[in-house]
Description:
Layout: E1 2-8, H1 11-25, E2 31-37, H2 44-53, E3 61-62, H3 70-87, E4 92-96, H4 100-111, E5 115-121, H5 131-142, E6 145-148, H6 151-159, E7 167-169, H7 173-186, H8 190-193, E8 202-204, H9 209-212, H10 215-229, E9 234-237, H11 240-248, E10 260-263, H12 268-276, E11 280-283, H13 286-295, E12 299-301, H14 310-313, E13 317-319, H15 324-335, H16 352-363
Parallel strand pairs: 1-2, 1-4, 2-3, 4-5, 5-6, 6-7, 8-9, 8-11, 9-10, 11-12, 12-13
Helix pairs in contact: 1-7, 1-16, 3-4, 4-5, 7-12, 10-15
Amino acid sequence: xxxxxxxxxxxxxxxKAAPLMDALQRRxxxxxxxxxHTGQHYDYDLSRLFFEQLKxxxxxxxxxxxxxxxxxxxxxxxxxxxxxxVDSRPDMVVVFGDVNSTMAAAIVAAKLWIKxxxxxxxLRSFDNTMPEEINRIVTDRLSDLLFVTEKSxxxxxxxxxxxxxxxxxxxxxMIDSLVKNLEIARRSPIVENLGxxxxxxxxxxxxxxxNVDNPAVLKKLIEILTIIGRKIPIVFPxxxxxxxxxxxxxxxxxxxxxxxxxxxPLGYIDFLRLQAESKFVLTDxxxxxxxxxxLKIPCITLRRTTERPITxxxxxxxxxxxxxxxxIRTADDILDGKIKQGRIPDLWDGRTAERIVEILxxxx
Length: 364
């Protein structure tokens, strides 16, 4: 029986961990999985809602590290995780994505000589100003098993000198959660509750420091989004970080609620339906780029770079950066029906967790 610790810290991790925990629990003859939640996303009620909707068991260990600077948060996670790993040494630690909890767990596991697996390995934006890029690079360098979502990940890891026997193309585990929950999401009342109709609105997410921490940048974005919102209303489940910045910079008062409707953050099921029924999505999130690609909903990404290039190559994702003229033109093209029809990338089929468990069974 092999003890496996799955470490999560932020809501994007939950959608990736839920299918793997489920698949591991179906093999009690081989695995004894344990879920550790660092508490990096410290909105406990919203985190709990995600756990409930994904039908995940409560975390076996909740560290409750909370917020702080990049260094403070990473350090607290490392201190607490070291105690956990020393006390009950796992055979394998599995981390997900690119948040601070991911890198912190990777460093602690490596220094304790515990095997490490990284789910969603090899993604690169080639933009070291993004904290997530540093987290990805460090985690991949330390990992014993690297589970890759798309072909760019394979190419990046090989260029970086990672031995091929450590690299496995398993597909996108977040799509496992989407496939499992899509029909449930279609029964969510969120669209009706907001007075919306299918294809008659745009969904917006915005939280990255490059977009929300500079008042001039955020003000300009609101002005451009208002132009788009006058053509088709925008629904904005507002991240707590972004809400704080809007209030701090005095920008909330310039938002017309009839054009950009700010609502509270949504749980997984409600937001999945909101994406699935929108005309298109505006985002700076990595996961949303992937979900819209699977749903074949056009996505305009408000970033200069993406670590998920497959969503632009074969999907219906459009990278516009801070070119606001391009942003408006792309939105107009979507509204006029002048866009490419995307397709779903290879192995984004809802069976990634099964493939990972098969590999773990062979390699542990």
